[in-house]
Amino acid sequence: MKKESIPFGDAMGMKVAFCNAMSVDLSDIKKFVWVSGQLAFDENRKLVGKGNIEEQTEQCIKNIENALKQLGGTLDDVVQVTVFVKEMVGLKGIHDVRLRYFKEPYPTSTLVEIKGFVDPDALIEINAVAAVCK
Question: What does pLDDT average to in each consecutive run of 10 residues of the chain (134 residues)?
């Protein structure tokens, strides 16, 4: 899939796993996949990483990866994520994890601080949009 992106740059003072804008040639697209917000639940529906934003971020991404796999996609197909956090602390840890899973060009991203989640021990929730290639 041909993706073009505008890098974010270094305004946050750290390496980040997102870009400012992205385009995808529609002739390359087989389908779009929207993945609902994923909390850090494992396959047994237990929240992992209580009190640990990095572990929870990793589990959220693994859940997105699993949903995409079931629909014929991969994390490389992700073009946009929305990240919800309880607190704005831990951003570097979140991006360190995201940088292990997402490759350039990074997806676009929005980060929002919210009051809470369905599970009171959840620290982060991530949803995704993917453009799966033919």
Answer: 77 83 89 97 97 98 98 96 95 96 95 96 98 88
What CATH number does residue 23 fall under?
A: 3.30.1330.40
Q: N- to C-terminal Cα distance for the chain?
A: 8
Query: How would you classify residue 3: left for phi > 0, otherwise alpha for psi between -120 and 50, otherwise beta?
Result: beta
Name the DSSP class of 27.
G
Number of H helices, E strands in the chain: 2, 6
Q: What is the DSSP letter of 41?
A: B
pTM over cut 0.90: yes
Range of the domain at 126: 3-133
Rounded Cα gap, residues 78 and 103, in angstroms: 10
As for how many domains the chain has, the answer is 1
- Amino acid identity at 109: S
d(CA 61, CA 63): 5
Is 132 strand, coil or helix?
strand
Residue with tokens 């991969």: 74
